[in-house]
Specification:
The complex is a heterodimer. Chain A is 46% helix and 13% strand. Chain A is an alpha+beta fold. Chain A folds into 4 domains: 14-62 and 219-260, no CATH class; 66-90 and 175-213; 92-171, Alpha-Beta Complex (Aspartate Aminotransferase, domain 1), CATH 3.90.1150; 277-345, DNA polymerase, domain 1. Chain A has a 4-stranded antiparallel β-sheet. In chain A, strands 3-4-6-5 form a 4-stranded antiparallel β-sheet. Chain A has a two-stranded antiparallel ribbon with strand order 2-7. The longest helix of chain A is centred in the C-terminal third of the chain and has 18 residues, at 225-242. Chain A is elongated. The two termini of chain A are 54 Å apart. Chain B is built from 14 helices and 34 strands. In chain B, β32 (571-573) and β33 form a beta hairpin. Classes of the chains: A alpha+beta, B alpha+beta. Chain A binds chain B through residues 13-15, 18-19, 21-22, 96-99, 112, 114, 116-117, 290, 293-294, 297, 302, 308, 312-324, 326-327, and chain B through 1-3, 535-537, 539-545, 547-548, 551-552, 557, 593-595, 597-598, 601, 605, 608, 610-611, 615, 620.
Chain lengths: 345, 620
């Protein structure tokens, strides 16, 4: 069994990086500007080139996260139960059930809870008040109006507090703005706008191993770097296959490996992989030439000429492919001579 | 959420003024109650000749604005006015125009024809294409439906049978065709010019083509074209040409190129001089290259010149002030600065012109003519966006022939037709064939030209098959070709992309001063850039040695002396005949091969105040 596996191994000195880059890049030029839509999700999830850039840039935010939550049998086959679950995880912020007003003169914040909306969402006013009080104890309640008198007298911090309150999560799972049930091949599943792996994983109703999110950063945070690597491969593959492009996964795996090798996700580009290349010349050749040269001179760095770019610049064979081959053995005569010299020393 | 609804911003309603704003040439001059009426009054005044026919009015109902435009620079075009569903250009009027009793200006003055600008057309015109289609609602009618097309399109035959992308291409290419661009080309000194030998007016002409009298200075020839493959030499938009036809001057042209130079004046009273340079002049060329020059240093007309031959002998004062010689007075050492025929060009000196430049200097222009015979690589195109490059000049005896012995001038590939949908090309071939037989021109005006069935009837009348196909015989084997082959006569243009003016090779040649890398461009006998992506490919192959050869060996390889002690670049003192490091005076030096660009990089790094060292190590 090991022989066929060994036969498929790439040879030493093969320029896998370049080949991967070309293999992804070439079909990438054919990517259409057409965008595909997810049924049911109102927000447009970026696909195609924008999404690819997003993944490769390892952005922290600025995208539309989404989750597919698959359910255990009894939920997946029962619309009622599935719906109830979906509703239970849909997150709600204070701003969506209440109206906040800062009074800069008296330095108070008044929160008027909309009773109707709260009722619709199945929330008791007392519950909301409790959550508010958890954040700031100094709150007085009068029917559906809560008044806060924070200690700070600073106007700016008052505003900041107000914003914090607005984003205060009062119900469901934080960061999940909406959840809807969809029918899949294995019964109902829940698709959410927004993602919160850690919290959703705690729920009993879900089919844990099938849980999906498109938020790579979150995968890294909750499941670790290996999972993040797989997520990167999966996401890129998704983008490419959606455009009808056929790229061998192993190229994507190499890309993901390169991004995750350091233990955290690194972007491709100036602030990530390319900016952290070993060689000074290689970095200088990429972007911000002066910056790299000056920093290198300040630190008294030395370029060991290990990489490809450096060797092209100075005009040597590159340590890839045929350039990697070196003569290891020395003639016995030379060896003896050397030994003699050593002795003499 | 509920409260948010209350917070909705109040929208300020901007009510439209109930009066119409009137603008003259974009400037607001006032308001008027009834804009529509004002427009009609103004327009009628113009039609009656009370206002200049060059003014235009546009009333926008939506914004209640009336624009009066009288300024220059507006694009305007004429229409025939329609009133109550009837064209004002009546039958009687047409008769009068024919007799010459009524002129164009009369038609404008009487309001039969009016010019509209884009604004007025947008707001008020509803134009019928022809008289027949006029209804009660129409306000104007086209003078001729052809005028919908522009100048270039309207000269193309059977455009309505072609796909739009090909029409676009045909337009672009007809502007590149060689013909007789000017009848006084003989005395003109254009920097580059082409003249087609034996130009022919096309057999298929459009009405505007005739109106423009394009046929008097045509740009093309009518060729017998067969649509078939020919031993693979017309694959992928290549065409096969009949060698014997080419020898009979088919599609032959002359290329004129004018070289010019003047006697420039330099600060310090010095001046260039046209003369036959003497061997003492610095930079004196081979004597052979001056052979055609007359005493005045200017070449004699009708002399045959080759690349690098001198056209005008010119000497210039030295670039720098001459050193004072031992004898006190500086010896005048002049510099050779002649105008020579460019590399890769040759020809015959057509004419020489002596004049004065704008700054009053003596000016010489030399026009060199060369005959360009069609050769593989030259570009040809029909007027249907069907372009191709000559792939082979086939001897006539090897080409397919018809029963009557007709051999095509050109063979194009059948694959060029279906996907491009240039049915007009096929139609012109049939039409051209019919025209050849009956001796009449084909009317190929869009939408109103001769019809396909007419050509077919004609062909049948002259004993051809109605669809234009013929039985051909293989010129090489003499066997009958199984398939019937479509053969016809169509107008082809020679385009000014001639290989002889473009081809370029380099195996060695000049390098740039700064980088020691090969120069760029054909004019400088340059190399072809081996760019970043090409580089990536070689890396991808792992072709390390080949990459080194491209980037170093065949580019800017140099050997530099490196000081082993301090890592800086050492020098060679020619006077003392000694190699040493200028920094630490060490003589422990090594010769290292590196790219000159890298040496330059090191110098530039030094110039920003960083000292780079090269630490040497023996090759493992």
């Amino acid at each position: 069994m090991t022989k066929p596996k060994k036969d498929t191994l790439v040879q030493t000195g093969e320029a896998v990086g370049i080949i991967a880059a070309q293999s992804i890049g070439e079909p990438g030029t054919q990517m259409t500007m057409r965008t595909f839509h997810y049924a049911g999700v109102a927000e447009q999830v970026p696909t195609g080139l924008p999404r690819l850039i997003e993944i490769v840039d390892a952005r922290k935010t600025a995208k539309k996260p989404l989750m597919d939550i698959y359910l255990k049998h009894e939920y997946a086959n029962n619309e009622e139960k599935a719906r109830a679950f979906a509703e239970s995880i849909e997150g709600l912020t204070l701003a969506s059930v209440a109206y906040l007003e800062e009074d800069f003169a008296t330095k108070k914040i008044t929160i008027t809870i909309d009773e109707e909306v709260a009722k619709e969402e199945g929330l008791q006013i007392s519950e909301i008040v409790k959550i508010i009080k958890k954040l700031i104890a100094n709150a007085t309640q009068e029917k559906n109006v809560v008044t806060l008198k924070p200690r700070t007298s600073n106007l700016r911090s008052l505003r900041r507090l107000s914003n914090k309150l607005k984003a205060l999560h009062v119900k469901g799972v934080p960061n999940i703005s909406r959840a809807m049930i969809l029918r899949g091949p294995k019964g109902f599943f829940v698709r959410t706008g927004g993602s919160n792996l850690a919290e959703v994983l705690k729920r009993e109703e879900i089919d844990g191993p099938a849980l999906y999110t498109n938020d790579i950063k979150e995968v890294e945070k909750t499941l670790g770097i290996e999972a993040a690597r797989n997520a990167i491969v999966h996401e890129i593959n998704q983008v490419l296959s959606l455009q009808g492009l056929d790229v061998d996964v192993r190229h994507l795996m190499l890309l993901a490996d390169a991004m995750c090798a350091s233990g955290s996700i690194k972007s491709i580009g100036r602030h990530g992989l390319s900016g952290e290349k070993a060689g000074i010349l290689a970095r200088a050749a990429f972007e911000e030439t002066l910056k790299h040269l000056i920093n290198a001179s300040v630190r008294g760095e030395e370029d060991k000429l290990i990489g490809v770019t450096e060797n092209i610049i100075i005009g040597q064979t590159i340590p890839v492919g045929t350039g990697l081959v070196r003569l290891v053995m020395k003639r016995t005569a030379d060896k003896k001579k050397e030994a003699k010299e050593e002795k003499e020393e | 959420m509920a409260k948010k609804k209350l917070k909705k911003r109040k929208r300020v309603r901007i009510s439209l003024p109930d009066k119409t704003a009137v603008y003259v040439n974009g400037r607001l001059v006032g308001f008027y109650a009834e804009g529509a009426k004002l427009y009609h009054d103004l327009r009628d005044k113009r039609r009656d000749g009370l206002l200049s026919s060059q003014t235009n009015f546009a009333f926008s109902r939506k914004t209640r604005e009336l624009f009066i435009n009288t300024d220059g620079g507006r694009a305007r075009r004429p229409y025939v006015v329609v009133k109550h569903g009837k064209s004002l250009y009546t039958k009687e009027l047409q008769e009068k125009v024919k007799k010459g009793e009524v002129s164009w200006t009369d038609l404008i003055k009487t309001g039969v024809v009016e010019y509209l600008d884009s604004e007025e057309e947008e707001e008020h015109a509803y134009v019928a294409p022809t008289d027949k289609e006029i209804t009660e609602e129409h306000s104007h009618v086209e003078i001729d439906p052809v005028s919908i097309a522009g100048v270039t399109v309207s000269t193309l035959p059977f455009v309505e049978y072609n796909s739009s992308p090909r029409i676009t291409m045909a337009c672009a290419m007809s502007k590149q065709s060689l013909g007789v661009y000017s009848t006084n080309y003989n005395i003109r000194m254009d920097s580059r010019a082409h003249i087609l030998f034996y130009p022919q007016a096309p057999l298929a002409q459009t009405q505007p083509y005739k109106t423009l009298r394009f046929g008097r200075q045509p740009a093309g020839q009518n060729l017998v074209v067969a649509i078939t493959s020919y031993r693979g030499y017309n694959m992928g938009d290549a065409v096969v040409m009949n060698k014997n036809a080419v020898d009979r001057c088919m599609m032959r042209s002359a290329f004129y190129k004018t070289y010019e130079t003047e006697e420039r004046r330099y600060p310090g009273g010095q001046k260039d001089k046209f003369e036959l340079p003497q061997p003492v002049v610095s930079g004196y060329r081979d004597e052979k290259q001056y052979r055609h020059l007359g005493e005045d240093g200017v070449i004699v007309p009708e002399s045959k010149v080759e690349a690098r031959d001198v056209l005008v002998g010119k000497t210039s004062p030295p670039r720098f002030l001459e050193e004072v010689s031992v004898f006190g007075i500086a010896e005048e050492k002049k510099r050779e600065n002649s105008v020579t025929v460019k590399n890769g060009e040759e020809g015959i000196v057509d004419s020489v012109m002596l004049t004065e430049s704008l700054s009053g200097n003596k000016l010489v222009k030399v026009k060199v003519r060369s005959i360009k015979v069609p050769e593989p690589g030259d570009k040809f195109a029909s007027r249907h966006g069907q372009k191709g490059v000559v792939g082979l000049l086939a001897p006539q005896e090897d080409m397919p022939f018809t029963e009557s012995g007709i051999v095509p001038d050109l063979i194009i590939n059948p694959h060029a037709i279906p996907s491009r949908m240039t049915a007009g090309h096929l139609l012109e071939m049939i039409g051209g064939k019919a025209a050849c037989m009956n001796g009449n021109l084909v009317d190929a005006t869009p939408f109103q030209g001769d019809k396909e069935h007419e050509f077919k009837e004609q062909l049948e009348k002259f004993g051809f098959q109605r669809h234009g196909k013929e039985i051909l015989y293989d010129g090489i084997t003499g066997e009958r070709i199984e398939t019937e082959i479509f053969l016809g006569v169509i107008y082809y243009q020679r385009l000014h992309h001639l290989v002889s003016n473009k081809m370029h090779v380099r195996s060695r040649g000049p390098v740039q001063l700064l980088t020691h890398q090969p120069t760029e461009g054909r004019a400088r006998e340059g190399g072809l850039r081996f760019g970043e992506m090409e580089r990536d490919c070689l890396i991808g192959y792992g072709a390390s040695m080949l990459l080194k050869e491209r980037m170093l060996e065949e580019s800017d390889k140099t050997t530099a002396l490196i000081c082993e002690k301090c890592g800086s670049i050492a020098v060679y003192d020619h006077l003392k005949k000694r190699e040493y490091c200028p920094l630490c005076d060490s003589t422990n030096l090594s010769k290292v091969e590196l790219s000159y660009a890298f040496k330059l990089l090191l110098d530039e790094i030094k110039s920003i105040g960083i000292f780079p060292r090269l630490m040497l190590k023996d090759k493992a």
